[in-house]
Design a protein that fits this description.
alpha/beta; Alpha-d-glucuronidase, C-terminal Domain; eight-stranded parallel barrel; six-stranded mixed beta sheet; binds beta-D-glucopyranuronic acid; Glyco_hydro_67_cat
Length: 706
């Protein structure tokens, strides 16, 4: 009996590694053994050695990553040699050639080419980083089951500065973070380097991210102290071999707060000198430091306007402080003063007049939409309106307004919608993407930033599918012409499963998820009707807050006549900020896409829409079908069960159940509340909510723990 139990124990212990749950830590870089033996044999034949001679630190990273990836995927060690051996062995050669001819941007140093030369595959980068990106592209081929014989790939990023922005604080909290606390352990730095920093760098390099602003834009001055510069230096040291530069968000009033000066006026000589000395001090410690990100005169943060100066005065002073160091200033345009007639217009009104006044080292960083990372926004009117200034597109990867880490919302369609939007400022085809990559106005520098969704949770992003949003950001920053579905397919194959039917099911669910979220939360252009401060759940009835433009009623303007914000000439006229072609299309309720309708028009409840329904009926239809689509997502996900790791599958199943519950919450809250104005019944075939408005309102209090 004892012997039998012991044997059973041995069997169980022995079997344990096989059924180890996938905790999501390895992201899309799993490098698990490829299951298809035939394919493995083919890959093995072509990858019998890695040849590399350069001492470039980033190329060394590329070699190590290639070795690691091939070892995992093919189950055998790959030797690294200085020179390709003569004979029949086939392998991979890595080389740097600054003049290599690669497709895409001709100025970028990050491009790579992969081509068959004789029996070998050669990965040529225009720099060490180019080699690293090429290696990741090659590994991606294997991870997604593509052929590598006679491979010919050539690619260059369209956008030069591809940054993650962390909104992380010194005390370890993350503003709008839903995946645990900050991954940066400030109290341990610089002595202790969590291995996680390296894995973070690997993940970013694998998708082409080449910069990281490590702290919150609501910045603490602490980061500029000598003590913290040492900590930042330690992180920069981890990032450097991965081609990633570190940037800091800076607190405008730092000269006063930590410098002991009486002012932070950008035109004050001592202030200028303080910043120049600070920049020198940082570059002395971190020679490849990237530069500064600044939120100034926004949401209570100090800034140059406190001294009667403007954003250009502030940004240019910092640019001058950077001197000859190779760094940039990203100055955020997310500003809105209290008391403005329409928050939509604020950033435009403050920044448009400054076009042409910024120094060449300054980029102005503009959110994708004019309000604040809503589930759907029209593109920001500053895109196309500041041709003399390089504009960084800022998108939010963390799901502040998109259901935190409990709702499955794949964001590539949202990012693409903005990138593909046609500003028409220089004729048709003047897309936001072309403004941002600098090609429309011939800018030398270009940038894109994503507010990170990364935290200390073992799986990095809380919701396992949130990883896809991090991944998609990087891939689109590299090439905005990739489709959302193509990116989802890559990610799914690398992360979840390569079983073809399951891949198709999951990709279709991901691809529709953002539209579904919009339908059950803010259909047809409703915006900013979410829970106060927390930004979670519905609160369309919110009428009192610190400022009118922090309420919901300011935005939806529901009354007995209809719904929506009139931003045409008879209203706030924010529409006039767009080019004439856009104005024409969006200015008429007959031609305005339904997705943007209530952004620009106050529409009568009974007004017929192109769908054949009245506004009220269309609104209810979208809320109901949106919530029901979550059930469809649950079914899709359930059907992929056999193809996905069981722990991961169960995790997402549970989160989808939360999503369904909360989609019903949004639906009921919004239809019941708007019904008090529309005064019409819930149209057939939908059945009215079984709870009252008062009951649903109570839920908000529960969530906000009031
Ligand atoms: C809003 C967030 C706030 C940020 C701000 C910003 O609610 O926490 O500080 O944006 O971007 O979305 O500065």
């Amino acid at each position: 009996m004892l012997l039998r139990s012991l044997l059973l124990l041995l069997v169980l212990v022995g079997a344990a590694p096989l059924c180890r749950a996938d905790d999501g830590y390895r992201l899309w870089l799993k490098y698990d053994l490829i299951g298809d033996a035939g394919q493995r044999t083919q890959y093995r034949a072509a990858t019998q050695f890695i040849a590399s001679t350069t001492n470039d630190v980033v190329v060394k990273t590329a070699v190590a990553e290639l070795q690691r990836g091939l070892q995992g995927l093919l189950g055998q060690p790959i030797p690294v040699v200085a020179k390709a051996p003569a004979g029949t062995k086939r392998g991979i050669l890595l080389s740097v050639d600054p003049s290599a001819n690669v497709s895409g941007s001709s100025t970028s140093k990050d491009g790579y080419r992969i081509a068959a030369e004789g029996k070998n595959l050669v990965v040529t980068g225009k720099s060490g980083s180019g080699v690293l990106y090429g290696v990741f592209a090659l590994l991606r081929q294997l991870q997604t089951g593509q052929s590598i014989s006679a491979l010919s790939l050539s690619s260059s990023p369209r956008i030069q500065y591809r940054l993650l922005n962390h909104w992380d604080n010194p005390n370890g909290t993350v503003e709008r973070g839903y995946a645990g606390s900050s991954i940066w352990k400030w109290y341990e730095l610089p002595q202790q380097l969590d291995p996680r920093y390296t894995d973070y760098a690997r993940a970013n390099a694998s998708i082409g991210v080449n910069g990281v602003a490590i702290n919150n834009v609501n910045a603490s001055a602490r980061y500029l102290t000598a003590e913290y510069i040492q900590k930042v230096k330690a992180l920069a040291g981890v990032m450097r071999p991965y081609g990633i530069r570190v940037y800091l968000s800076v607190f405008w009033a730092a000269p006063k707060v930590i410098g002991g000066l009486k002012t932070s006026d950008p035109l004050d000589a001592q202030v200028k000198q303080w910043w120049a000395a600070k920049a020198d001090e940082i570059y002395k410690e971190i020679p490849n430091f990237g530069g500064f990100l600044v939120k100034a005169n926004s949401e209570g943060e100090p800034g140059p306007q406190d001294y009667g100066r403007n954003h250009a005065d502030g940004a240019n002073m910092l640019a001058t402080a950077l001197g000859t160091h190779d760094g940039i200033v990203m100055w955020r345009a997310f500003v809105y003063k209290a008391g403005s007639s329409d928050r939509f217009k604020q950033a435009y009104e403050e920044f448009k007049p400054l076009d042409g006044q910024f120094s060449p080292k300054v980029l102005v960083q503009v959110k994708n939409g004019p309000i604040d990372f809503q589930a759907r926004e029209p593109f920001h009117p500053l895109f196309g309106a500041m041709p003399k200034t390089p504009l960084v597109l800022e998108v939010q990867i963390t799901q502040e307004y998109l259901g935190f880490a409990s709702h499955l919302v794949y964001l590539a369609p949202l990012f693409k919608e903005c990138l593909d939007a046609d500003t028409q400022t220089k004729g048709p085809g003047s897309t936001v993407a072309k403004v941002v990559d600098g090609s429309l106005d011939q800018h030398r520098i270009s940038g894109i930033a994503g507010v990170a969704n990364i935290g200390s949770d073992r799986n990095w992003t809380g919701h396992p599918m949130g990883q896809a949003n991090w991944y998609a950001f990087g891939r689109l920053a590299w090439d905005y012409n990739l489709t959302a579905a193509a990116i989802a397919t890559e990610w799914t194959k690398m992360t979840l499963t390569r079983e073809p039917k399951a891949v198709a099911t999951i990709v279709s669910m991901m691809d529709k998820s953002r539209d579904i979220y919009v339908r059950y939360t803010t259909p047809m252009g409703l915006h900013h009707i979410m829970g106060q401060n927390i930004h979670y759940g519905p609160e369309p009835w919110l009428a009192e807050a610190g400022r009118p433009d922090w309420t919901a009623v300011y935005y939806h303007k529901a009354d007995s006549a209809g719904l929506g914000f009139n931003r045409t000439a008879t209203g706030s006229n924010a529409l006039a900020l767009y080019s004439p072609g856009v104005q024409k299309q969006w200015g008429d309720t007959k031609t305005c896409p339904l997705d943007y309708l209530l952004w620009f028009h106050h529409v009568g409840w009974k007004q017929p829409l192109p769908t054949g329904r009245t506004l009220w009926s269309e609104l209810v239809t979208r809320y109901y079908t949106g919530a029901d689509s979550v059930t469809w997502m649950q079914q899709q996900w359930a059907s992929a069960k056999a193809a996905v790791d069981p722990t991961l599958h169960a995790d997402i199943t549970a989160r989808l159940a939360i999503q369904r519950r909360e989609a019903l919450w949004w639906r009921d809250a919004c239809v019941l509340y708007f019904q008090t104005y529309a005064k019409q019944p819930i149209p057939a075939p939908f059945t009215p909510p079984t709870r009252t408005l008062a009951e649903v309102k109570n839920l908000v209090d529960l969530y906000q723990l009031k």
